[in-house]
Fold these 2 entries.
Entry 1:
Amino acid sequence: MKIILGADHGGWRMKEEIKRWLKNEGHEVLDRGAFEKDDNDDYVDFAVLVAKELEKNSKAKGILFCRNGFGMVIAANRFSWVRCGLGFDKGAVERGRMDDDINCLAIPADYVDLKKVKEMIGVFLKTKFSEEERYKRRLDKLRHLSLQDDFDFFEKIRKSGRQIDGVSYIRKMRDSR
């Protein structure tokens, strides 16, 4: 499996450890930086580089590292094809893969040790999306949401009570504008 890594100054050291481990496990690893500690770098730049690689390869997985993970999650999720979750516990990572089909994992390097990170990444790479209809429906809504920033539009959907056929309603409303 192709794995794309990115880290800012707060996560680069852990990224380097994980990169060696992943290669030893037989994974194809693409490192998008940082390649040294630079306190003036910005997490956003590395999240963008990983997101662009995920756009090129829908089967790849991204792993981002920074001090608390939140900045990477925020930046990566700006891209409609990225579903980035925060890795703090292997059970949560498993649910993120099964329910939300996350394709990118942000690691809060200041708050988790290397052993725990390896466990979370192992779960992230092995767990499959459940394919349950309710989760597929939610992901479809997210894909359409990324095309739409009109909150009134989505309030109409909520008020309609049309959960099961929400995506069709979204398309109908969007097309009628």
Note: The mean pLDDT is 87.
Entry 2:
Amino acid sequence: MLSWPGLCREGEAVYRGGRALPLFTEGHSGLMHNSRPLTEQAHRYLARYLQSGDWALDATAGNGHDTLFLAEQVGPNGHVWAFDIQAVALESTAQRLRAAGLEERVTLIQASHARMLAILPQVVIGRIKAIQFNLGYRPGGDKRLITRPETTLPALTAACRLLHPEGLISLLVYPGHPGGAKEYQAILAWLEGARLGIKRIDGCTDQSPVLFLLSHH
């Protein structure tokens, strides 16, 4: 939910079961440049996994940009669930969806994403093709209201259960804001024990956002 430019040099690494695989060595070594924001790159990867009729989940609705993207991708026969604890975030998201005529494709839920498994219908477990996390705080909102590891980690664990075997989780993390470094370190520790395929895309500094792409294969 925190807005960063993400326009710096990109570095990629691929992990399996918490261990780095020597498939990508770009980025800080200067071998690769990418001018696309990480938010845009997340959409680009998720679009490869989504098609009309699929189910998707936005774990951090914020101002609704990701929710709208997912709603566009799943088409008239698909569905999106979007979580946020802030009523103002869901109001912003609802306005964006109404402007696009896509509100019927989305269920907005005012609750912590840590409660996803308890709230969502059991039928979606293992069947959601794309899950998006955009952590931090809501752009334009109260910067004291941030995502925290106490709820982010349970939400990630739940997301792994909800994810389709051929699906993708996009996880955008922001170490640079107050509280962000703590959450980032907690996520790194969680990833060490996760039995997932993990692709990491870095910004140009230690304070830049980091995009993780997680899958079951």
Note: The two ends are 27 Å apart (CA to CA).
